[in-house]
Amino acid sequence: MEATYQALRKHGYADLSISKIAEEFEKSKSLLYHHYDGKDDLLVAFLEYLIDQFAADITLDAWDDAEAQLRSFFDRLIPPALDDEQREFQTALLEIRAQAPHNEVYREQFTKTDRFIRETIEQYLESGIEQGTFREVDSEATAQLFLSMINGAILERVTADNPRAIKDLRSALNSYIEEYLAA
Amino acid sequence: MEATYQALRKHGYADLSISKIAEEFEKSKSLLYHHYDGKDDLLVAFLEYLIDQFAADITLDAWDDAEAQLRSFFDRLIPPALDDEQREFQTALLEIRAQAPHNEVYREQFTKTDRFIRETIEQYLESGIEQGTFREVDSEATAQLFLSMINGAILERVTADNPRAIKDLRSALNSYIEEYLAA
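The joint structure predicted for all components is written out below.
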């Protein structure tokens, strides 16, 4: 998985091959060829691994401050700045996502990723409502708004040059939480 | 431009060539080869044409109901359903956008598209504030939130299978306008 990450980041999706992943792999290369049918097979396993890793990292504590958890989740997905490695990786992920309309197994993975993000936000919203810090909003619809905003920001960040985008988005999100969500 | 649209929709970005565009072109094919250096050159002209067409279609009447104009603009970008032709075209546009991280001229075009959408929304927000129907929100930051939400919804629509996404997003947007933006 680490070898796939490095190869993807360096070569992008279009130029990726299983042999380029093998170049990054320290263990037996035949093991890699034995386990995976080709780059798409390996990438599906990689996308699954990414979601699992991300999910394992996310805390969902119904007793903790829901607003703080929501803000920190957003910061993980939309950090104020990206270093070169993060930018290369986001770019490669977008290239894979652009294959999803024609590739059902990729589409399944991105459907899972989107569902995970949406459901996590939904749980933060419901905790906040329970805790009395958030108003009684429609948590499913509101979580979808957050998800699309996050996906859009990730897309814009690598495909357009608007130096103010992330700052403006964070400021709008602040107002949204403080003036709309807050109980 | 019509020939480019048809070829792009049918073949997608990766399989597109200037000869496939020429196949859709009723006039002299040599004219096409004479005017454009290759598929990328033609696609940049096509992206410029799309923005111009879209901009010409959008009404920005400071005297008209700003909320209605904002809703109708959103509906244009995120219609409740896509027919096959619209879906094919959105898919092809995403494939081009996924090239933008490595391709400066594409990135310039998507920067322009994003700017046009953001500035249009900003003007609707400012009209609404002027008309007294919207609260005095930070129109630049709020327009960025709308833009990312729109870009995310367009991306999700063709790359993930969530039949509720658009319905939920519209419902969240309704609440946002009625309970947050409304004066």
